[in-house]
Design brief:
Blueprint: E1 8-9, H1 25-40, E2 45-50, E3 58-69, H2 76-79, E4 87-97, H3 106-124, E5 129-134, H4 137-144, E6 149-154, E7 157-163, H5 164-171
Parallel strand pairs: 4-5
Antiparallel strand pairs: 1-2, 2-3, 3-4, 5-7, 6-7
Helix pairs in contact: 3-5
Bound molecules: coenzyme A.
Length: about 180
């Protein structure tokens, strides 16, 4: 499985969503059953990285959506600059790599692409941060090594965040 060079928006008529397997049932089910439905409902956007061998086969995907966080969950130094109502953020709702392509740097590429996408959205409509919910410590480490910090824990999930200011710094000078 060799990745193509670009992520493209998921196209239900073209991409074989049901063949994707990252080894985590919840993420597979989202791609197989809900990604198109949620796009059509206007609540999230899924981008996929096809393989070089076939434009239909998916090596990796990510999904972006909107959400909000409580101001009090942020570090005091950030919270004190914000108004006393829920803070709008972008949600990196899903990110996964096909299990036969894991461990080769594709997760990192997908994360950088997703963050660049958030940066582009933020230019048009600002939000405070990017957040992601993780289920276990291993995956938490995948994100914290790129600067994500723990925000809070909810329903056994750890919510991490990276301020949009930090995201902007990653791409400053590259526009
Ligand atoms: C987590 C996932 C996206 C990582 O993708 P990947 O292609 O395997 O990761 P990469 O090869 O790009 O690794 C990038 C770095 O993260 C580290 N890393 C990757 N997966 C990790 C994990 N589960 N735990 C800890 N570190 C991890 C790698 O060691 C590497 O570090 P390095 O740059 O210092 O060598 C992928 O394993 C996956 O899809 N897992 C199943 C779905 C999932 O859990 N998604 C996250 C939802 S919150």
């Amino acid at each position: 499985m060799t990745p193509a060079s670009k992520f493209v928006e998921l196209n239900k008529a073209l991409h074989e969503r049901n063949l994707f397997d990252c080894g985590v049932e919840e993420l597979n089910t989202f791609l197989h059953k809900f990604s198109v439905r949620h796009r059509e409902a206007g609540i999230s956007l899924t981008m996929v990285l096809p393989t070089q061998e076939s434009t239909a086969e998916i090596c990796a995907f990510y999904t972006l959506s909107h959400t909000e966080i409580k101001r009090q969950t942020l570090p005091q130094s950030m919270a004190k600059r914000l108004p006393r109502y829920p803070v709008p953020v972008l949600l990196l709702a899903q990110l996964a790599v096909h299990k036969t392509a894991q461990g080769l740097g594709l997760g990192k590429i997908a994360l950088i692409r997703a963050l660049r996408h958030c940066h582009e959205i933020n230019i048009h409509l600002p939000s405070f941060a990017v957040v992601v919910d993780v289920l276990d410590d291993g995956v938490q480490h995948f994100y914290t090594q790129y600067g994500f910090q723990v925000l809070d824990t909810d329903n056994g999930r750890i919510r991490l965040f990276l301020s949009m200011k930090a995201v902007g710094q990653l791409f400053s000078g590259s526009e």
